[in-house]
Structure formats: structure tokens, C-alpha cells
């Protein structure tokens, strides 16, 4: 073997060593690249999983927000809104979502904001109530803790519109007070008559007068009981209206004729102005009751020699029936309340009656798909109007 051959062999071996080293380095680089790619893929998968969980959680929040009628808000540690349901935006922001604003900027109410501040300061749930834009709101503010070791805190806030509940509570209290007042007078009269009978010493004239008084007061109690029962049945939907096409003139005439003797006693002019051909889709008995109630009130509150007119006017799809008198009238501030149960306007229009007639009339008219209202001014009489569907 010549020196040249030995040199060639050494060169070949050196070249093989370089190739092996390069191959090993290439393998290491490839393995590192594969590991880096796998790490990036794993990180991407973890990120996608976290984003999916966050989105799923937001979907749960949105579903929770849609399933309640309350306003729900989540706040960060700066008291900025990070999430709220649609009820919140409807209540405070005209229906337009606007996150990342402060709670006070959203609600614009000191009491609500103070409830949140107290909850965060005391680290406990707070319940407050406040009137915001004529609505009574009840707020629940509960602080939320951040991750372990973090000083970040937020809050979960729920707000309920309890305006209607407040109104119903007042109505219930008014009902109890009114029914107690309505029962007190006839019961007192009956008790007085009974005591007088006990002390009458057999005087037939006194006995007869007291018996008549007792009979009249019992009739008042019976009327009150009957009207309360009827009103409860109408409000609960137990009274079914039988709507049929009917001529209005005879229905109105029958109701008015019943009250003619009472109007004659006071020398009142009671007239009916209804086209004979005018028809409407009505329950004749129920609409007759509405007219009877309105005309009876007009006769009661119109002075002697006054005028009362019952008229009907065809409209596009309805018929408007009106009962007008020239009595003392009703103040504007009381006109919306005259259709409430037991409500009686000023003393000029509050004599006698149970205070349920107009409430019953309102429910009957609304059951026909119509509406009822009053137009009046003090000293200028009153006109009660209601509509029924035209046949």
C-alpha cells in the first residue's frame, strides 16, 4: 500500500466522520424542530380548549341572563361592566349593549351604586331598594373573589323591577281599608237600629222604621257582596262573553228605560240618540249592565232638572257609546282612578254606591276588546265613553 493510498483512506475516513457528525446534528435539529412543533401544537390545542371553555361559559351566562326577567351584571375589580344580560341594557341603556363602562355610569343612581360600594367594602352581600325613573328597583350586590393570591375583586349584581309588586301591595292594602270602610257604615246602622228596637218599648212606628233601616242596610251588604263576587269572576276569566251581532238601540233603550223613574223624580231630561241601524258585536246582557251603571251614576250625580244624553257613534272598526251629563264633573287628577275598585271621586260624586260599578264596567268593556275612559272638567259635567267592535 503506497503512501498515496493511505492518504486517500485517511481522507475518506475523515470525510465519513464529518458526514456522520453532520447527520447527527441534522437529526438533533430535526428532533428539536419536531419537539418545538409538538409544543406549539400542544400550546395551540390548550389555547383553543381554553377559548372553547370561555365561550361555553359565556353561552351559559347568556342563557342564564335570558331565562330571568331580572337585570344581571358582572363587574371587574374597577367596577366596570364585563358582562350583562339584555334586561340590563333594556332597563338602563335603551337596549344597546355597552360593556366596559363603570357601574355608576350605567345606572346613574347613587343608592344603587352605594349598595355595590358597601358590598365590596364589607365583603358581603347587600340588598337595597331605590326609585329610578319612576321605577322601584331592588338590587342584590355580591362581591366575588379573584384567583388565589390575587387582590383582584369584582361583583355580581342583580336588579329586580318591583314596581308592579309595590303597586299590588298598595292595592291590597287599599282593598282591605276600603272594604272595611264600606262594611262599617251598614253594620253600624244595623247595630243602631237593633239598639233602638230594644229600647222602643213596643212603639210600632219606631219598630217599623228601624226594620226598614235594617232591611235597606242588608240590601246594601248583599249588593256589595254580589258585586265583589262578580268582579272577582270577571277578573279571573270565569265569566264567558257571548259575542253576537246585535242592534245597539234596543239594548241601550232597555237599560235607560229602567232608570227613567229615577230621572223623573229629579225632573231630569234623559235622552237616547242611537241610530236604529247601528249594530255591534257584543254580549247584550253585559253591555246593558255597563250602560245601566253609567246612566245610573249620571242620574245620581246630575242635579235636578239636569240633562243626560246616551249616544252611539260608528267609527271605522268600532262603535263609540257615550253617556254625558251636566253634573259637577270630575277633577282631572282623579279621572284615571275612577275605574279602580272602591275608588270614589270627590264628595260631589261619592254619594252612595259600592264603588265597584265602574271597575266592573271596565273589565266588561276590555273583555269586548274595547276601552273605556272619561272626559270631564269640574263644574262642566262628565262624559263617559267606551268602544265595542262594530258588527
Number of domains: 3
Topology as H/E string? HEEHHHEEEHHEHEEHEEHEE
Strand residue percentage: 15-25%
Q: Report the span from N to C terminus.
A: 129 Å
Q: Return residue spans where pLDDT drops below 50 for at least 5 consecutive residues.
A: 346-350
Radius of gyration, taken over Cα atoms and rounded to an integer in Å: 41 Å
Query: How many strand units?
Result: 12
Cα shape: elongated
Summed over residues and divided by their number, the pLDDT gives a mean of 82
What is the CATH topology classification name of the largest domain?
Heat Shock Protein 90
Assign a percent range to the helix content.
40-55%
Instruction: Please give the largest β-sheet.
Output: 5 strands, antiparallel
- Find the structural class using helix and strand composition: alpha+beta
DSSP helix count? 9
Q: What is the CATH superfamily label of the largest domain?
A: Histidine kinase-like ATPase, C-terminal domain
CATH architecture assignment name of the largest domain: 2-Layer Sandwich
Provide the fold topology:
Layout: H1 3-66, E1 71-75, E2 81-84, H2 86-92, H3 103-107, H4 110-122, E3 126-132, E4 135-145, E5 153-161, H5 163-198, H6 204-235, E6 244-247, H7 248-265, E7 269-273, E8 279-282, H8 284-301, E9 307-314, E10 318-325, H9 357-367, E11 372-376, E12 382-389
Parallel strand pairs: 7-9
Antiparallel strand pairs: 1-2, 1-5, 3-4, 4-5, 6-8, 9-10, 10-12, 11-12
Helix pairs in contact: 5-6, 6-9, 7-8, 8-9
Amino acid at each position: 500500500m503506497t503512501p498515496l493510498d493511505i492518504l486517500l483512506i485517511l481522507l475518506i475516513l475523515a470525510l465519513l466522520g464529518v458526514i456522520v457528525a453532520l447527520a447527527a446534528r441534522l437529526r438533533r435539529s430535526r428532533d428539536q424542530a419536531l419537539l418545538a412543533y409538538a409544543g406549539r401544537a400542544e400550546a395551540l390545542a390548550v389555547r383553543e380548549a381554553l377559548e372553547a371553555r370561555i365561550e361555553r361559559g359565556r353561552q351559559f351566562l347568556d342563557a342564564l341572563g335570558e331565562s330571568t326577567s331580572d337585570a344581571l351584571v358582572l363587574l371587574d375589580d374597577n367596577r366596570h361592566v364585563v358582562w350583562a344580560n339584555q334586561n340590563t341594557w333594556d332597563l338602563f341603556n335603551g337596549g344597546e349593549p355597552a360593556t366596559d363602562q363603570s357601574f355608576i355610569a350605567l345606572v346613574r343612581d347613587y343608592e344603587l351604586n352605594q349598595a355595590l360600594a358597601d358590598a365590596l367594602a364589607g365583603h358581603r352581600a347587600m340588598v337595597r331598594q331605590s326609585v329610578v325613573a319612576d321605577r322601584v328597583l331592588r338590587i342584590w350586590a355580591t362581591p366575588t373573589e379573584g384567583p388565589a393570591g390575587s387582590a383582584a375583586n369584582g361583583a355580581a349584581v342583580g336588579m329586580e323591577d318591583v314596581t308592579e309588586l309595590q303597586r299590588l301591595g298598595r292595592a291590597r292594602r287599599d282593598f282591605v281599608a276600603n272594604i272595611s270602610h264600606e262594611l262599617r257604615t251598614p253594620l253600624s246602622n244595623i247595630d243602631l237600629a237593633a239598639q233602638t228596637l230594644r229600647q222602643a218599648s213596643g212603639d210600632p212606628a219606631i219598630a217599623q222604621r228601624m226594620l226598614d233601616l235594617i232591611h235597606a242596610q242588608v240590601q246594601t251588604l248583599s249588593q256589595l257582596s254580589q258585586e265583589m263576587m262578580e268582579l272577582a269572576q270577571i277578573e279571573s276569566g270565569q265569566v264567558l262573553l257571548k259575542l253576537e251581532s246585535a242592534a245597539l238601540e234596543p239594548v241601550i233603550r232597555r237599560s235607560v228605560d229602567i232608570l227613567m223613574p229615577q230621572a223623573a223624580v229629579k225632573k231630569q231630561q234623559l235622552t237616547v240618540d242611537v241610530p236604529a241601524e247601528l249594530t255591534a258585536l257584543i254580549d247584550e246582557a253585559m253591555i246593558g249592565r255597563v250602560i245601566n251603571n253609567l246612566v245610573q251614576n249620571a242620574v245620581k250625580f246630575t242635579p235636578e232638572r239636569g240633562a243626560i244624553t246616551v249616544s252611539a257613534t260608528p267609527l271605522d272598526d268600532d262603535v263609540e257609546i257615550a253617556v254625558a251629563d251636566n253634573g259637577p264633573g270630575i277633577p282631572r287628577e282623579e279621572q284615571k282612578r275612577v275605574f279602580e275598585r272602591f275608588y270614589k271621586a270627590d264628595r260631589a260624586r261619592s254619594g252612595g254606591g259600592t264603588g265597584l260599578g265602574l271597575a266592573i264596567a271596565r273589565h266588561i268593556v276590555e273583555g269586548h276588546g274595547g276601552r273605556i275612559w272619561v272626559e270631564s272638567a269640574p263644574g262642566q259635567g262628565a262624559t263617559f265613553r267606551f268602544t265595542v267592535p262594530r258588527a
